[in-house]
């Protein structure tokens, strides 16, 4: 799966990592719903860090269709809220 982090680029991520990332996504969604700004910031950065750690960066010149788009680490709660689907940021 190709994942884009807004403002950073794309990484290739094995589907086997989705369960772990979904746990962080669920935490992020709960923190957004409760208005926990500090928890939201911590979990968003943890989610992005795991994607960076687990994924293999694609070259900057590569423009592949992204199957998943994640917000930048500095995104606001409102900006992330606009990106959400029923399942959060990560489907499943």
Word description of this protein:
It contains 3 helices and 4 strands. With about 90 residues, it is of the alpha+beta class. The protein has one domain. It has a 4-stranded mixed sheet, with helices on one face. Strand 1 (about 1-5) and strand 2 (about 10) form a beta hairpin. Helix 1 (about 20-35) packs antiparallel against helix 2 (about 35-55). The longest helix is centred in the middle third of the chain and has 18 residues, at about 35-55. It is globular, with a radius of gyration of 13 Å.
Give a topology summary:
Blueprint: E1 2-5, E2 9-12, H1 18-34, H2 37-54, E3 56-57, E4 68-70, H3 77-83
Parallel strand pairs: 1-4
Antiparallel strand pairs: 1-2, 2-3
Helix pairs in contact: 1-2
Percent helix among the residues? 40-55%
Domain tally: 1
N-C termini distance: 14 Å
Main sheet characteristics: 4 strands, mixed
Contiguous uncertain segments of 5+ residues: none
What share of residues are in beta strands? 5-15%
Question: What gross morphology would you assign?
Answer: globular
Mean residue pLDDT: 91
- Strand tally is 4
Sketch the topology as an H/E string, one letter per element.
EEHHEEH
Strand order within the widest beta sheet: 3-2-1-4
The total count of helices amounts to 3
SSE-based structural type: alpha+beta
Radius of gyration based on Cα positions: 13 Å
Brief account:
The protein is built from three helices and four strands. It is α+β, with helices and mostly antiparallel strands and 92 residues long. It has a four-stranded mixed beta sheet, with helices on one face.
């Amino acid at each position: 799966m190709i994942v884009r982090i807004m403002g950073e680029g794309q990484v290739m991520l094995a589907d086997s990592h989705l369960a772990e990332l979904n746990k962080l996504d669920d935490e992020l969604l709960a923190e957004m719903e409760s208005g926990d700004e500090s928890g939201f910031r911590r979990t968003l950065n943890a989610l992005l860090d795991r994607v960076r750690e687990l994924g293999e960066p694609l070259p900057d010149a590569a423009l592949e269709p992204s199957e998943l788009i994640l917000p930048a680490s500095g995104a606001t709660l409102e900006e992330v809220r606009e990106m959400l689907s029923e399942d959060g940021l990560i489907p499943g």
